[in-house]
Design brief:
Pfam families: DivIC. The protein is mostly helical and about 120 residues long. Helices cover about 80% and strands about 0% of the residues. The chain has a domain at about 20-90. The chain has helices spanning about 1-75, 75-90, 110. It is elongated.
Amino acid sequence: MGKRKRRKKEKKSFKLNIVSLLFYAVAFYMIFTIVGQRRSLAAINEQKEAKLLEKAETEMELQELREDYEKINDPEQFLEIVEKIARDEYKMVKPYETVYIDKNKTKNKFIMGIGTE
């Protein structure tokens, strides 16, 4: 009878090892899944922050465009905008205005050569 008791103990410890092995496998799988989900969540949060920043920039640009649109509808402000564009982009001047150019501040090759001999 002593041998039968030993066999039962051996079978019990073998079953216990399989159960603990399955438990560890499931625990490892759960940990692996949780870590993967946290990484995915962090990446999604980064994308969300980037999109929110892009949205804020777009809203600021939209507000500026709305303000420009309102200025265009006002005749006085419209003339100021046209004058600013003409002066800045096309280098136009009003009649009887004298234009002074600082040769040290300009990078235009033709202007830099004027007055040197």
